[in-house]
Structure formats: C-alpha cells, structure tokens
Write a structure and sequence with these properties.
This protein has helices spanning 12-17, 45-57, 71-85, 100-111, 126-135, 152-158, 181-194, 223-226, 233-237, 251-264, 270-282, 284-309, 333-344, 375-386, 394-397; strands at residues 32-33, 94-97, 117-121, 138-142, 163-169, 197-201, 227-232, 245-248, 314-319, 322-326, 346-347, 349-350, 365-369. With 399 residues, the protein is an alpha/beta fold. The chain has 2 domains: 5-42 and 286-397, Aspartate Aminotransferase, domain 1 (Alpha-Beta Complex), CATH 3.90.1150.10; 45-283, 3-Layer(aba) Sandwich (Aspartate Aminotransferase, domain 2), CATH 3.40.640.10. A 7-stranded mixed beta sheet has the order 2-8-7-6-5-3-4, with helices on both faces. Helix 2 (45-57) crosses helix 11. The mean pLDDT is 95.
Length: 399
C-alpha cells in the first residue's frame, strides 16, 4: 500500500513524547520539557473574558464564514502590518488560515505540483518538510553557514526550471537565528529576478530582538508578485488550540489558495478569528511585555552558556523561542535525545529531526524550545546538561 503520507516521517513532537512512556520523574527533579515551541498557558484573562462574551453574544462565531477569513480581521492585519513594515497592504492581500502550518500548505498547493522544487535552508522546520514530502514537492536543502545563515549565491546555484519558491523562517525555527534585513532583501531580489516566490514565515516576529520592522520587503516595488508572508496568532496571543494564521500575498495567489482552504476546513475557526481581532486591537501592551520576557529568557540562555562551552558545547543560534546547541558527545543526537529523558529528566528534540538524513551535522545538534521555562528553569536545564557524563566525541576529547 502506498499513500502521500508514507512519503514522509512521523510527527517529531509526537515521537518525542513517546520517549516518556514508562519513565517517572521524582518530585524534586521533575521533567523539563523543551521539546515543543508552543505556549502552554491559556490566552491572557482579558482575552478569555472577551472570548466568553463572543461565545454567548456573537452568533457568527458559531457559523461558517468566508473561506479567506473574517473581513474585519483581514482589514486589521492589513492596517497594522502596513504600519509596522512601512508598506502598503490592502485587505484583499490578506487571508486568514487555520494556523500557520495550513498557510504554508495552502501556499505550496497554490504554486507547485508534484515534481517541483522548493529551496529550504537547513536546519529546516520539520512540518514544512513533511508537507512538501506529502505534496510530492522536492525539498531542496540549502546548507547554511557557521552562523546558520543561508547564502543567496548558493541558493542561486540550486535553482532549476522546476524551482517554485525559497522558504525562509525568521526568527528561525529550529535555530532561533534572526536573518538580517539585508539578507532577506537579497533573497527577495533573487526570487524576483528568477521568477519564483519568496515565502517568509514570520511566526515568531513578535519576539524579534530588533525594534521596528525586521525587513523592508513590503516596501519593494512589485512585492505582490514575489512575496508570500506567513504568520501565526498562536504565539502572539496563546491561541494555539484555536488555530489562526495568515497569508499576505497577491489577491490572485490567494484565489488559488482559496481552492485548497475550501476543501480542507471551509473557513478558519470563527471564534479564533474574532479572538485574534480582539487581541490585535486590545493587547498591544501585553504582547510587548511577552516579548520582553522572551528576550529575558534568551539573555538567560546566553548567560548560562559558558558553563557548557567549557565542556565542549556550542551555542549555534539563539532567539525567539529557541536555542540550538551543538553537543560534544560521541553518540548521535537521535540517540542522545531519548537518553536525556532518563539521564537528565529533559525532553528536547535532536538535530536529526531538522536535517536531511545524509547531513552529519544533525547528529551533533539539539533544539531547546525555552518559551515555557523561566530563568530559574533555564539555569536548572543547563546544570543538568553540565552533569552529563556520556563519552565525548573524539574531536572534542582531543582538544
């Protein structure tokens, strides 16, 4: 039996959770779960109260809505994004989706068919790779440099007549790296010149360390013909279970995406959309506080890192919700990560989940999603890592 789903791997987060089966953790040393990059807290109380009012008093929250989303939400996104990025975005350039993963799937369905190619920097976001696999679209690995930044010139060399897009995630999942504005612009110009799309997934843009616009893509002439911007309300307002994301691109491309969206969910969650709209209109200061807390946790990671650096670890990237580490041990990360559950009481994802099977770098890397642990938890995490006594890799042992 063959099927589209058999062309890809099992969901990594679900696979990692199975490592917990049969393992117990003492009260004085509970599990530290840094495997999933999603808030575990519910939306803030003011938003929950607003949602309760919507459930009772807004009949449309329970009915089908437009396939491309709630018009007031589309208009609000267009207005706020225009102000934030210094560009001009019309409401009909915005579509609301059932989460950002669906935004990516709809985009790929609208621009590519089986046998086409999409360039994806490595380490990649595994759900992007999974969807490309299931769609029969080739995920063409674009290796990154020591700072985990992709090179436009290397990307140019990989483009073929079957290439349909370059997909960037910034701030990056899994590495946390923030792509500089000039680098993102260079990729835009490359995509524009070669007639392909530039997909920029900015799920974590609200936690960027830079104040102001992270890039100037919406200010470029002809951006509508090249740029596909993706976004998630899950991280901003903790609406993970309500599944609300967005696409910003040309109305013509959205008309193609609409075909996909209509056959999958018909419309995004109405309650989720009304909630996202309320959040955009009322939670700006609260979200600014959330950003500062995430930046403080990033600083805590960097402050704790010297104790691991002395033991052969390397911090490859850090930002948004993520720290991406290179470990010093002889065993590959796909063996190390399950071992960490029993030896350290830590659930983290191995770099092999974010890399092509034939790329050896993945075996040396671990992703830590730190959004759900505070500074004290980060300190405890690094202390547990520092106590590990696995055999070291030869290159480290010889230093």
């Amino acid at each position: 039996m063959t099927s589209a789903t058999r062309h890809t791997f099992s969901p990594p987060v679900m696979e990692a959770r199975r490592w917990l089966d049969g393992v117990s953790f003492p009260e004085d040393r509970p599990l530290i779960n840094v495997s999933q990059a999603a808030p575990v807290d519910p939306p803030p109380e003011p938003l929950r109260r607003a949602m309760a009012e919507l459930v009772v008093n807004e009949p449309q929250a329970h009915l089908y809505g437009p396939v491309l989303g709630l018009p007031p939400l589309r208009a609000e996104v267009a207005e706020q994004w225009s102000a934030a990025y210094g560009g001009t975005i019309a409401a009909d350039c915005v579509a609301i989706t059932s989460g950002c993963n669906q935004a990516f799937a709809a985009t790929i369905s609208a621009i590519a068919e089986a046998g086409d190619e999409v360039l994806v920097p490595t380490p990649w976001y595994f759900n992007h790779k999974m969807w490309l696999d299931m769609a029969g679209v080739i995920a063409k690995a674009l290796p990154t440099d020591a700072a985990l930044l992709p090179d436009p010139d290397k990307a140019r060399a990989l483009i073929t007549p079957r290439t349909r897009a370059i997909a960037l995630v910034t701030p990056n999942n899994p590495a946390g790296v923030e792509y500089p504005a000039e680098l993102v612009l260079a990729f835009f110009k490359l995509a524009q010149e070669t007639g392909i799309k530039l997909i920029v997934d900015e799920t974590y843009r609200d936690f960027h360390s830079q104040s102001g616009a992270p890039h100037a893509l919406f200010q470029q002439d002809g951006w509508l013909d090249t740029l596909v911007h993706l976004y998630s309300f899950s991280k901003a307002f903790r609406l993970t279970g309500h599944r609300v994301g967005a696409i910003i691109t040309s109305p013509g491309l959205l008309a193609e995406a609409e075909k996909f969206l209509d056959t999958v969910t018909i419309c995004p969650s109405q309650l989720g959309q009304y909630s996202a709209l309320w959040g955009l209109q009322n939670l700006r200061e609260w979200l600014a506080g959330e950003r500062l807390e995430i930046l403080a946790r990033r600083a805590a990671i960097e402050a704790e890192m010297p104790k691991l650096t002395a033991l052969g670890w390397t911090l490859k990237g850090c930002g948004a919700y993520f720290a991406y580490l290179e470990h010093p041990f002889a065993m590959p990360s796909n063996e190390l990560a399950p071992a960490l559950v029993k030896e350290a009481g830590v659930l983290a994802l191995p770099g092999t989940m974010f890399m092509p099977l034939d790329d050896p770098d993945g075996s040396r890397q671990i992703r830590v999603a730190f959004a759900n642990i505070d500074a004290a938890g980060i300190s405890e995490l690094f202390e547990r890592f520092a106590q590990l006594r696995f055999s070291l890799a030869p290159s480290v042992a010889g230093k």
